[in-house]
Every structure is written in C-alpha cells, then in structure tokens.
Design goal:
With 89 residues, the chain is an alpha+beta fold. It has helices at 32-40, 47-54, 63-79, and strands spanning 2-4, 9-13, 16-20, 27-29, 83-85. It is built from 3 helices and 5 strands; from the N terminus they run ββββαααβ. The N and C termini lie close together (9 Å).
Length: 89
C-alpha cells in the first residue's frame, strides 16, 4: 500500500496537480492523468485499486495496461519522495 508522503504540498491548477516535495526544493507538475492518480491516493492504495477506480474515466486503454502505467508512475513518485509505503488500513 502506498500513500502521499507527509509534507508534500499540492494544488490542482487547470486540471494539473502541482506538487512541492517535503523539503520544498522541487516543484513537480503532473499531467491530467497523473493528477487523477495523485487524487486517488487520498488514502492508502495500490496500483491495482487505483487502476480499477480510474478505468471508467479513461478511453483507449485496458485495465491491465492502466495498472502497468500506474505502477510505473507510482514508482517514479516514490523515487522522488512524494509517496511512501503505508500500513493497510
């Protein structure tokens, strides 16, 4: 399970989330799909659950393809320190 890292500040502007890392050193702007994934992290979740929640809102992609893309995106966010492991709640 993953969750947003404490201290990450974000705001959605024109459908794109703008994130500030916990150290305040880096600004990250997400595309609309990345923003949907970020917003789906409103509580502990994983790639499969997020893909299941978002598949109805996205066209031209299967749930399996979306899950793979979500996993890669979450790995990138984790590497940047924007999300972290969480205990299942």
């Amino acid at each position: 399970m993953l969750r947003r890292a404490p201290g990450v500040i974000y705001e959605v502007v024109d459908g794109r989330a703008v994130l500030v890392d916990p150290q305040g050193a880096e600004l990250v702007t997400l595309n609309p799909t990345g923003t949907l994934i970020w917003e789906a992290l409103d509580g502990p979740s994983d790639a499969k659950a997020i893909a299941g929640r978002l598949i109805a809102d996205l066209e031209g992609v299967t749930e399996d393809e979306l899950r793979v893309d979500v996993e890669a995106f979450l790995a990138d966010l984790r590497q940047q320190g924007l999300i972290e492991e969480s205990e299942r709640q």
